[in-house]
Amino acid sequence: MCRTTTVLLIAAISFYGIGCSNESDPSVHLNRGIAYHEQKRYDKAIAEYDRAIQLRPDHAEAFSRRGLAYRHKGEYDLAIADFDQAIQLQPDFAIAYHNRGCAYYHKGQYDQAIADYDNAIHHQPDLAVAYIGRGEAYYHKGQYDQTIADCDHAIQLQPNLAVAYNDRGLCYWNKGWYDRAIQDHDRAIQMQPDYGDAYYNRGLAYRDKGEYDLAIADYDQSIQLQPSRADAYCNRGETYCRKGEYDRAIADYDRAIQLKPDCAEAYYGRGVPFYCKGEYDRAIVDYDRAIQLKPDYAEVYTSRGQAFRGKGEYDRAIGDHDKAIQLRPDYAVAYNNRGLAYHKKGHYDRAIADFDHAILLQPDLCMAYINRAIAYLDAGDHSKAWADVKKFRSLGGNPDPDFIAKLVKASGRSG
User: Domain range spanning residue 121?
Assistant: First the structure.
C-alpha cells in the first residue's frame, strides 16, 4: 500500500547542460540523476547520485534521492543506509524520514516505519503522504482506528487525495462497515477513474454485503486496469463460488495460478468449488498444494478435512481438523467441522463437545447450533435438540424440513 513521496524537479531541468555542463558541479549530477529517476532508469540515476556525493560528501539531498532509487529497485537496506546518512546530515529532513519509513514498511518493519512517519510529521506537519504512510503501517498491524484517523487528517490537508479515501474505505471494510467503505471507494474512483485498487477494494465490500453481481463488476474493472493482478481473479472466483457458479470460479482460480504459480490462496480457493461439486479428490490435490506452499495455513487443513469427510475417511478428516486447531486454537469453524466428523463416526458426545467449543468461541456461528441439534437428536436428547433449533432460527437459520420432521416424530412434539 505504501506510497513514497518523490520530489523530483520538473522536466525543464532534465539533463541540464549535457554537452556543455560543468561536470565538477554536484548539482549537475543531481539534476541528471533526477531526470533518469523520472524515466525509471534507476541504475543510471544512482550513478549520477554517486558522482554528486563524491563531489560533495555532505549533500543530504543526493543521499536521500539515491536512497529513493534504491527503494524503487527493492534494495531496501541500501535505501535505509542512504536515508540514515541524509538524516544525519540534515536532522529536520522530513522527506528523508518519510521515505525511510516507506523502506521499513516494505520490509514489514511497521513499528520502525511508524516512528519515521512520526518524525516526518513532526518536522513537516502538512505532509499529507506521511499520514497516509503511517496509516498504512497501522493498517498492517490491525490498528484500523489509527489508520482511519490518519486518513482523516490527510483528507483535511489534501481533500482530493484519492488514496486516503481508498485506505479509509479498506479499514471500514475490515470493521464490517460495508456501506461506509463503498462510499469512500466511490469517492476515490470519482477522483481517479483508473484507480484499480479502489475498484478491487469496493468489490470486497460488495461481496461481503452479498451484492455479488456488483462485486464481480468491480473485479472486472480492476482486472481490466491491472490484468496481472492474481488476487483480483481469486476474489472474483470466490464470488462466483458464493453464487454457485463453480466452473466460472475454477476458471478464475486457474488464471490466478497461471499468473502466480506459488499462490497458496489460489490453490486453496480452487479447491473449494471442486469440493462443492463433490469432486473431493481434485479438491484434496489443490489443498495439498496449498499446504505445501504455506504449511501453517489452518483454513486449508480444515477444508481438506471436510473433503476427507466427504469421502468417508473420517479419521483423516479428524487429523486435519486437529492440525487446524493446533495452528489456530480459537478457530471455531475447525471445531465445528471436527464435530461433524466425530458425528459421522457415531461419537456423539465428542461431536457435541466440539460444537460446544465452537459456540463458545463464536456464539453467532449459526451452523454449530443446527449441527449440535442433529447430534442431540441422534443421542436421544430431544429437548436440547429443540433448544438448538430455536437458537438456530433466531440467528436467521432455516432448518431442513426432513430433520424437523424426524425430530417431531422422535420427540412427540411439534416444531
Answer: 1-159
